[in-house]
Every structure is written in C-alpha cells, then in structure tokens.
Design goal:
homodimer; alpha/beta; four-stranded parallel beta sheet; globular
C-alpha cells in the first residue's frame, strides 16, 4: 500500500489548516489509482502532526509513504525540521520506505501558476 | 507605468530569499509586455521590505502596483499583515492604484503543480 502525505506548516487560524485539508482531498481524488491513503499533516499548530500521520499510515499497512512539503522556499522548516522528522521515522520503521519529495516552490510550473493570478 | 511585486515571508536563510528573487526575475522575463517594473519584497527578515518596495515603485513613476502574495494558505500574514501594509501605503499614495491579488495557494492549478512533484 502506498500513502501520500501533504505536509504544511500549520496555522493558528483554523480556516488556513482547512485549506490544506481541502487540498489534500483534491489530491486524493486525483491519485486514487496510485495512492491507497492520502492525508495532510502539519509541522506545528495543527493536527495531525507529521509523526502522527506517518504512524497512522504505517498502522494502515502502507509500505511506501511519499511526503510532499507544501512550502514555497527552502527555509529552516524545509532544510532541517521536516527532513529530521522523516529521518527519525525512517529509523523507527526500517521496513517502510519514506520518500521525501521536493517542496512545492521547486515545481517548474510555479511561474505559470503565479501568472494565472494576475 | 505598471509594477508587479511578489511578496514573500522572508527567511533568515539567504538562499531562501534568493529563491524568491530568482522567481521574481522569471516573472519579470515573462511579463515584459505588461509590467515596467517587477521586483520582490519581504514581510520580514529580508530586504526590501514591502513598504520600501512600494516606495521604490512609486518613485519610479508607477501608477499601478500589483501585489502578489507568495503564500500558500490564509494565515495571519495573508489575512491581516499584508493587507494592512497595503492599505497604509494606499492612504499615503492616493494617486497610485495598489492592487492586492489573491495569494499563490488559491491558484486553480495548485493540484496539478503538486502532482508534478510526485
């Protein structure tokens, strides 16, 4: 079984976190053929946490977990915090392949996406 | 004259801010026909600040300044901080039209952009 986790920063504003949940739901609909489980997780300020979401995916029997950081630039969260959490979970679950993907800001289509907002 | 300002959070990591500057440069190349001045500005931790970037555009003679928030979700920065800065600058420069666009996370193409990273 394959899982996809969309990782966001998390906000004190509930509606902001709900945006991420909605986006994860849209990703789920678009990847039904590829991922058995799609969810979001938050670095801080909202639930589930990244470790909790990984534990849930493992408990469901997922052997491959793709982690997609919903971040725009390579600040400390992207460079250090998220990789450290992933590395720790990988040590705890050596039989599971946890695959950290590039963060959203690296997507080649970002310029076109921004142009669509002008 | 028209200006476009890409507004990012700003980071203590210089390379992260440079990513935003590079992206603004790509936007500049793609919008030569539409904007006379394209730059980035940062809410905090990096230069130029949003007020400084607006002042520069005004000093160049820009009568219309489009502000595009490079943010993914509607947290406090998007809901309060940036609109307040823009509103203040609009009061200071009533002859300039400052147009705050939707933030990046609202772009309809976001799901496809994320799928491109998997």
């Amino acid at each position: 079984m394959n899982a996809l986790l969309l990782i966001a920063h998390g906000s004190r504003i509930g509606a902001s976190n709900d945006e991420v949940r909605t986006l994860a739901g849209r990703l789920r609909e678009e990847t039904l053929h590829k991922y058995d489980h799609v969810d979001c997780a938050f670095l801080e300020l909202a639930e589930p946490s990244i470790p909790a979401a990984i534990e849930e995916a493992v408990a469901m029997g997922c052997e491959r977990i793709r982690v997609l950081p919903y971040f725009l630039a390579a600040g400390n969260h992207v460079i250090s915090d998220i990789p450290e959490i992933i590395a720790q979970k990988q040590v705890e679950h050596p039989g599971v392949k946890i695959d950290l993907r590039p963060y959203a800001g690296t997507a080649p289509g970002m310029v076109e996406l921004l142009l669509s907002l002008l």
